[in-house]
């Protein structure tokens, strides 16, 4: 693993949950100050997350982000005024295949994100309160997902049974190969998104938009949906609590999110080399 990128970093793209955010979804003062220091140093900063756009607004405001941000693992890239730079929907057939498998699992709660809403059929699932706290808004209960099949941003399988999600990921990926991406954004969440909904694509799109070469970009994250941006970035940084397979794909490893690892990485690997 390389210690530093030979070129100064001009753009940092960061994951949110498990990276910038503490376990209670708050931002530490050190993280806020580190991001502010990036802006003072003239380094572009933005966010890439599995969350929907409106679940990013509080953090965008707190961090002072004034660039387009990537939601749904990069499936949607949104300008600060709410207009889309990029929007990719899950193909209908991939949605049908995914829902057919996931909805049969008694230990799995299935959520669909479409039309700006969080949709579910069972509002009393045990994972719902956690997600509502994280997103900051309630779900919409629907009788069927069928009316939304043409415009789904993301399907999520949520379960406290992590090994089951690993198994479902391995089963589902071959069935939607070439149509959709299947990845665990967190140990308890399995995401299904459009092929173009990749944080790697988001990094490249945003770098081009900003006029920054990929060699001058950095990416930081902790989940299974983060290595695609590690592959494209000039410098890739994994959080200390990330799974070993994620850390193994990064150039450097920082502290965990409860240790202000993101701020440490900014201070050491980006600002410290300028």
Relevant terms:
globular, 2 domains, 274 residues, 14 strands, six-stranded mixed β-sheet, Hypothetical Protein, Haloacid Dehalogenase-like Hydrolase, Chain: A, domain 2, alpha/beta, 31% helix
What does the model show?
With 274 residues, the chain is of the alpha/beta class. It has 2 domains: 11-87 and 197-270, 3-Layer(aba) Sandwich (Rossmann fold), CATH 3.40.50.1000; 92-194, Hypothetical Protein, Haloacid Dehalogenase-like Hydrolase, Chain: A, domain 2 (2-Layer Sandwich), CATH 3.30.1240.10. 31% of the residues lie in helices and 22% in strands. It has helices spanning 29-40, 57-63, 92-102, 128-135, 162-175, 199-210, 227-232, 244-247, 261-270, and strands at 11-14, 44-47, 69-71, 76-78, 84-87, 109-114, 117-120, 140-141, 152-158, 180-186, 189-194, 217-221, 235-238, 252-253. The strands form 3 sheets. A 6-stranded mixed beta sheet has the order 8-7-6-9-11-10, covered by helices on one side. The chain has a 5-stranded parallel beta sheet with strand order 2-1-12-13-14, sandwiched between helices. It starts with 10 loop residues before the first strand and ends with a helix. One of its GO terms (molecular function) is magnesium ion binding. This is Pyridoxal phosphate phosphatase YigL. Keywords: Hydrolase. It comes from Pseudomonas fluorescens.
